[in-house]
């Protein structure tokens, strides 16, 4: 549930967030 929600936010974020920021968020979650 949480993962799906995050993925949804990440996909929406792709339209207005810098890629570097997105990668940083991913690294925070996976570490």
Helices and strands in order:
Elements lengths: L1 H12 L5 H12 L1
Any low-confidence stretches, pLDDT <50, length ≥5? none
Radius of gyration: 9 Å
Mean pLDDT: 80
Oligomer: single chain
List keywords for this structure.
31 residues, mainly alpha, 2 helices
Written overview of the protein:
The protein is built from two helices and no strands. The chain is mostly helical and 31 residues long. The longest helix has 12 residues.
Quick overview:
This protein has 31 residues and is mainly alpha-helical. 77% of the residues lie in helices and 0% in strands. The protein is flat, with a radius of gyration of 9 Å.
């Amino acid at each position: 549930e949480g993962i799906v929600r995050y993925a949804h936010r990440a996909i929406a974020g792709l339209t207005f967030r810098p890629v570097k920021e997105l990668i940083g968020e991913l690294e925070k979650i996976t570490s």
